[in-house]
Fold this sequence. Notes:
Blueprint: E1 8-19, E2 25-26, E3 30-31, E4 35-47, E5 53-61, E6 70-71, E7 77-78, H1 81-84, E8 86-87, E9 94-99, E10 105-113, E11 119-130
Antiparallel strand pairs: 1-11, 2-10, 3-10, 4-9, 4-11, 5-6, 5-8, 5-10, 7-9
Amino acid sequence: MKDLMNKIDVKRVISPVSEAGTTALVGQIIDKQGFESLTYVIATGAIADIDATFTVLLEEGAAANLSDATAVADVDLLGTEALAAFIFSDDDKTRKLGYIGAKRYTRLTITPVANASAALVAAVAVLGHPMIAPTANPPA
């Protein structure tokens, strides 16, 4: 059996939330220093609105506060933001979006459109291929 646990670090991006509007869910800034790979995982619970859509945006930058944030170019993504997006009928699903760009900092934003009822959403970042292993448990 192979060991993945000691070779990844998991960071909270968007805490589990029930969003009943169209406010953008702006994730925590993720610092990938010390890791060679990064994948965002988005999880949905029940989505009550019958016509809601949820777009996904990944930004990158060199500044720790992402004051220089720009949208990640498609060539620096594994998968697409469109594939990571979801709609009202995607109850209890997961999506993933990989980042292979050169910038140190990234931020994921999920924006509801036409959402007037509760939608349960959460996201985490999985950092892999650490320069120093094993990684801490629980994650720092």
